[in-house]
Amino acid sequence: MAILPMKRIHIYALLEDHKQILELLQQFGTVQVEDDLQEDEFFSKKDLTDEKLKLDRDITMVSEALAVLNDYAPEEKSMFDSLKGKQELSFADFEELSAKYHEIFKTASNIKNLDRQIAESTAAMYKLQLQIDTISPWGRLDIPLQFQGTNSTAALIGTLPRELSHEDILIQLADLVPEVEGLHLDIISADHQQTCIFVLCSKKQESLVEAALRSIGFARPAIASGDKAPAIQKAEWEEEYENHRKAINESKTAIFSFADSRGELQFLSDCLSMRMERLETSEHLLESKRIIVISGYILEREAEALTSALYNKFLLYMELSDPSENEDFPILLQNSKFSEPVEGVLKSFSLPGKGEIDPTSIFAFFYYILFGLMFSDAGYGLLMAIVCGICLRKFPKMENNMQKTLRMFFFCGLSTLFWGAVFGSWFGNAVLVISTTFFNNPVSLDPLWFEPTQDPMRMLVFSMGVGVVHLFAGLAANIKQSAKNKQYMAVLYDAGFWYMLIGGLIVLALSSEKFIEILNLNFIIPENIGKTAGIIAAIGAAGIVLTAGRESRNWFKRILKGLYGLYNVSGYLSDILSYSRLLALGLATGAIATVINEMAAMGGTSIGGVILFVIVFIAGHAVNIGINLLGAYVHTNRLTFVEFFGKFYEGGGSEFMPLGINTKYYKIKEELKS
What's the predicted TM-score (pTM) here? Predict the structure, then answer.
């Protein structure tokens, strides 16, 4: 409906007041500070990189502390909590929590330290478990694994691959070193992967025996037990493992004890985010030794209140002025409750650029109509409208963006309900199937107009008719935009001639019996009106040829550009045909719903059949709603962005993003402004 007017604002204040001024601007949330001031020999911009890095570390630490707390002491939430909106925080509570800043920060640090201890203990336990698993096969050995032997004997302690018996090992050694005598062998343990052995031989024969053992895969233990027997070392490691486990449990208990501090941590996270926003804004300011300069934009309707607040609290000078004609000021839209919900869709394309109108109102009207035509089932629309309506009524404090989204789908649901009733689709043919299958008394809800599945050609013609109206509405918006910019000749050149050409061709076609026969229409326009429309179309075509290239001074180039502009008539034909997707998606929704009902009724009237019907009906229609809801949303956007906006709208505007209280967890009450 309207783009809110902006004012240019410049504030000249004492440097010592700049933090308090930024806090006040943040509380008001109506000034977008710009980085458009130029440095000179007296004024410069402050480098706050170090402060931002430190603050960013603090924000990360608090966020991680909250994540840790949520892992070990999850907050109980329902699926509707996201609709409740942020918790409100009064000015008194804000001041009280701000006074506890350092205490809350210490809590976050403690949680992070406890989490670090848990991570370190977990890593130590993993390492200990590996050591315990490695030393376990040596549990029967009552001497250290590093035992080398005595003065006259040599001990060889290690493993052989795969499982071997005492006899197998001795036979292999006998074959390899038959000269060795007095060799002693003990098998400590054996499994399918390895055999742990202890070999004792004379000191003189150590090298021969070890070489023979290595030839059959002998390897020293991969783990050391110091001067302790494996069983003793294992017991110590197990005790250490248990100590770490207890430490982890204690740390988890300690973290859980901070559950009541979750709200304070969330406040601290919001407080730090607000501080970061002020710090980032401070980088755009010019400073001298005593003066600070702030430049930006302010909503015109908020200028008086902010001026009064600033002059009452600070010694400063403020300038307000209108943006220059060539200035691209930020955009903030204001629309009715009916149109406002689709602003998010408009932003996903682009906000109005310089000299463009706000298309939200006309865009919203057609958006709801097109969505309803594509979804086109009264049962689905009624269900969607009821669910969205209940959520909007039950959760009045939900976030603004979420509220707009639900209101958009509420209106889309009403549109779907209307068009579904017009075309006679209530969960497909559910009424007919249920009455026939379970009550043996066929009952149906007749369409208010016609049923598209029985007369698809009429639906196709209707869809293209809607497309023509939509495109002509886009041309009307073009006229309004040209008139707003006082480009009165463009009203005729860029819209009037196209109305004449496209409208004339349509009327001419509707006066042709062959065309009427192809479309299976039950009316025809009189031939004399058709001829008049043809003349009007020819005038429109000539006007396009003569004016489409009017920016060129060369007449030959101008005519060539005009002919190229006239070629765009094929684009209009393509655009009109694009609206056949209204037929395609509308038929798909109803046809799939009908198939689901027929499948659900295949179980008959027995108890098992009733249960099968309920399950298939609910599951099938849930899937159908999900798929076709997405399809309706995507293709409505497509028809709007490509066909409709293509006639008058380019966008390119930047969103008004004032310095404000952009918090994640809490909503600061308006009393902060007072």
Answer: 0.85
Fold exhibited by the domain 146-220: Alpha-Beta Plaits (3.30.70)
Residue 138 and residue 670: Cα distance in Å, rounded? 72
| Domain assignments of the chain as residue spans, ordered by start | 146-220, 340-437+455-647
114-135: burial string, b at 16+ Cβ within 10 Å, e else = bbebbeebeebbeebeebbeeb
Q: Are 268 and 59 in contact (CB under 8 A)?
A: no
Q: 3-state class of 38 per DSSP?
A: coil
Q: Which two tokens stand for residue 603?
A: 């179980």
Residues linked to residue 199 through DSSP beta bridges, in sequence order: 156, 185
Helix (H) / strand (E) element for 490: namely helix 488-490
Q: How far apart are CA 343 and CA 349, in angstroms?
A: 10
Only one residue has tokens 């502009």, namely: 565
Instruction: Give the Cβ contact number of residue 298 at 10 Å.
Output: 23
Yes or no: say if 297 and 23 are a contact pair by the CB < 8 Å rule: no
Residue ranges in 376-496 assigned as alpha helix (H): 378-394, 400-423, 430-439, 456-484, 488-490
Mean pLDDT of 474-502: 91
pLDDT band at 670 (very low <50, low <70, confident <90, very high): low
Spatial separation of the C-alpha atoms in residues 426 and 377, rounded to whole Å = 6
Token pair for residue 518?
């192809």
- What's residue 381's pLDDT? 97
Q: Is 31 helix (H, G, I), strand (E, B) or coil?
A: strand
Question: In whole numbers, what is the pLDDT of the chain averaged over residues?
Answer: 91
Mean pLDDT of 43-53: 92
Q: How confident is the model at residue 556 (pLDDT cuts 50, 70, 90)?
A: confident
Which tokens go with 423? 């075309």
Of the listed ranges 127-131, 263-267, 564-568, 591-595, the one predicted with least confidence: 564-568
Q: What is the largest CA-CA distance in the chain?
A: 129
Residue type (1 letter), 206 = E
Q: How many helices (H) and strands (E) does the chain have?
A: 23, 12
Q: How far apart are CA 74 and CA 76, in angstroms?
A: 6
pLDDT at 361: 94
